[in-house]
Amino acid sequence: MPLDTASHKIPVARNAADLRAAVAEWRTRGETVALVPTMGALHEGHLSLADLARAKTERVVVSIFVNPTQFAPHEDFSAYPRTEAADAAKLDGKADLIFAPDAADMYPQGFSTTISLSGVSEPLEGQFRPTHFAGVATVVAKLLLRAMPDIAIFGEKDWQQLAVIRRMVADLDIPVEILGGPIMRETDGLAMSSRNVYLTPGERKAAGQLNVVLRETAASVSAGTLISEAAKAGAARILALGFDKLDYLEIRDAASLAAFPDDRPTSSARILVAAKIGKTRLIDNMPV
User: Fold this and answer.
1) pTM metric for this prediction
2) Tens digit of each residue's pLDDT (9 = 90 or more) over 192-223
3) Is 43 a catalytic residue?
4) What's the CATH fold of domain 194-287?
């Protein structure tokens, strides 16, 4: 099947065969390839990943696929924004190919394989969304094996996801370099997210303070405050802002996401948070 070139300025591959054919043609010319996996509803954070990919390789593929297997039954899969035409317009000049399969192509009838990880996937998001990372790992493995890029780039806002993908790629010997792209933030510091559109004006104002609490809590730990004390104070501040629920505010080893047994960082550390305000669940993180 030829690439879809009627709808957008950028060609679109709808299945694995067309994606592989396009990549193979680039390979015959000795060109390097980057993959930027997304679920669409693109914002400046996503576009910064495409820019990073362009700076590192000759060819850039951006995948757009709202992956059903990483959503729990009570989550927002059906409501998740799907804006392919607008996304394609934003990618003009930034990507050479969009890979936009449907669920039947990614998970054909009889599909029965799941990739699950222990360790890095279990705390934090793994505790509150126990099926999430199996869905992420499975779809990312499929995307990497379909495109076989030289590098794949993921945003650091989903820090635990990045750690899970790095672990999976290392464990399965998938010959792709995994890079993280810096978190892009709004003017008040709120991490950019496709779900920010769900916020009411009042919720948006409170959400803009989440990064401030993280930064000041991280600074407190760096100054010598015990992790448990700093995290408890930070959690109270987040709830005082008007957040309805705090799933976690934790300071963990940046690579393994293991807790520090002596209540003080002994290696490179990251502070991570997940909190719900109104209908919107926000995550964020930053180095300590």
Assistant:
1) 0.94
2) 998 899 999 999 999 999 999 999 999 999 99
3) no
4) Pantoate--beta-alanine Ligase; Chain: A,domain 2 (3.30.1300)
